[in-house]
């Protein structure tokens, strides 16, 4: 079977999958086939809400997907989204133990080709997980994700909340780009903060599937071999909102310099986003302009933007604290989120976030240092 662009679109919309299931009278498999003593499949164990059953065969048996029919950025992004989720399902279907070291050629080659065409790394990034992963339920209704992972409603809520934060930042980005000193960027960030709250009825997410990295990950110390692409393993960081362009753009606009880690995250942005951030970096300094103007009102407006950015980051730290504490407590009690169909083991926080004696202290010191560096960007009176 040659999977062309149309089939990928059908996978996206889940229509073919649903029809296929209806014809065959079977339901979507949600149990790990490896655990069930069957060969692993590309998407089955993911419980992907869309067309996973199109990929109910092992990637080793699956025909090599052709990317030659994909046209335009939208289709490429959609293909990247689908291939990245299938890859994640294949690699992590049994959690962090017993991870595979080789991505089969049938999956690796098309994933690599689509990634090259988009200038994105061949891994599920923020671009896939959030920016490309939404649709309207119908023209007048609310947003929904295209693909989700086990994690129930809470994970779907997390994806959409992050998307709303991106949306809330748009006015700030627009004004910031025009570099008007009386930017309402601060308001934009303040408007984004409440978006952090889980939507009504949704609890905090159980990210048992995170971190989905094969860089600096003890479970995959050498990275991943993309069969048919290279014999050498390659290492990539998984998706994180640290790869979101909005915060990088605001930081550059306000002259805030951050860590090597955050800089490295720019490699995970779509090239036009990266170019946008770099263009702001190259432009004459806004802070210098405000300072040399000697205008007290400009200084106040500038500082208000810095405060809003620091407040936003403080709020984020509060949410991350809640998540780590709640997830650790749930894991201890062996409780699952009611919306999570994957069972009690699913509430186990990922090892990188786990309070393994450190209480996740490395994460908090990182996030706090980013917040404190932001505060240091203030113009003193
Ligand atoms: C329960 C929800 C969340 C958790 C547990 C969480 C966790 C984390 C963690 C652990 C990091 C450290 C970097 C990394 O490991 O990649 C991080 C960074 C970051 N997160 Fe979140 N996050 C959450 C929600 C959000 C949302 C909704 C946004 C909105 C865009 C966001 C934006 C960021 C940004 C921009 C960074 C980079 C650090 C910075 O610029 O301050 N996070 N997050």
TrEMBL record:
Keywords: Heme, Iron, Metal-binding, Tryptophan catabolism. GO terms for biological process: 'de novo' NAD+ biosynthetic process from L-tryptophan; L-tryptophan catabolic process to kynurenine. SUPFAM superfamilies: Indolic compounds 2,3-dioxygenase-like. The keyword Iron applies. It comes from the Eukaryota. The keyword Phosphoprotein does not apply. GO terms for molecular function: heme binding; indoleamine 2,3-dioxygenase activity; L-tryptophan 2,3-dioxygenase activity; metal ion binding. Residues 334-356 are annotated as: Disordered. GO terms for cellular component: cytoplasm. Heme b binds at residue 316. PANTHER family: INDOLEAMINE 2,3-DIOXYGENASE, INDOLEAMINE 2,3-DIOXYGENASE 2. Belongs to the indoleamine 2,3-dioxygenase family. This is Indoleamine 2,3-dioxygenase 2.
């Amino acid at each position: 079977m040659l999977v062309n662009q149309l089939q990928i679109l059908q996978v996206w919309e889940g229509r073919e999958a649903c029809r296929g299931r209806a014809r065959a009278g079977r339901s979507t498999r949600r149990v790990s086939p490896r655990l069930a003593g069957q060969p692993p499949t590309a998407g089955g164990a993911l419980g992907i809400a869309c067309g996973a059953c199109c990929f109910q065969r092992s990637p080793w048996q699956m025909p090599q997907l052709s990317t030659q029919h994909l046209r335009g950025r939208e289709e490429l992004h959609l293909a990247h989204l689908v291939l990245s989720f299938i890859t994640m399902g294949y690699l992590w279907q049994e959690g962090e133990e017993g991870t595979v070291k080789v991505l089969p050629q049938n999956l690796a080659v098309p994933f690599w080709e689509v990634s090259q065409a988009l200038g994105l790394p061949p891994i599920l990034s923020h671009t896939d997980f959030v920016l490309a992963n939404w649709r309207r339920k119908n023209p007048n209704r609310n947003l929904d994700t295209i693909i989700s992972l086990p994690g129930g409603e809470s994970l779907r809520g997390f994806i959409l909340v992050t998307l709303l934060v991106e949306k809330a930042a748009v006015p700030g980005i627009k004004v910031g780009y025009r570099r008007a000193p009386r930017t309402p960027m601060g308001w934009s960030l303040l408007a984004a903060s409440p978006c952090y709250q889980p939507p009504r009825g949704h609890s905090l997410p159980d990210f048992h599937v995170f971190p989905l990295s094969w860089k600096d990950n003890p479970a995959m110390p050498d990275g991943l071999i993309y069969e048919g692409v290279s014999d050498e393993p390659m290492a990539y960081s998984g998706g994180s909102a640290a790869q979101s362009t909005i915060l990088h753009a605001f930081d550059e606009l306000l002259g805030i310099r951050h860590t090597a880690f955050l800089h490295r995250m720019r490699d995970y942005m779509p090239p036009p986003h990266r170019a946008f951030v770099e263009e702001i970096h190259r432009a004459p300094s806004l802070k210098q302009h405000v300072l040399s103007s000697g205008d007290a009102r400009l200084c106040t407006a500038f500082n208000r933007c810095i405060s809003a950015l620091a407040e936003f980051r403080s709020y984020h730290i509060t949410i991350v604290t809640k998540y780590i504490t709640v997830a650790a407590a749930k894991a201890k009690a062996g409780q699952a989120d009611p919306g999570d169909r994957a069972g009690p083991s699913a509430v186990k926080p990922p090892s990188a976030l786990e309070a393994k004696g450190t209480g996740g202290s490395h994460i908090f010191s990182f996030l706090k240092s980013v917040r404190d560096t932001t505060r240091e960007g203030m113009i003193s009176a």
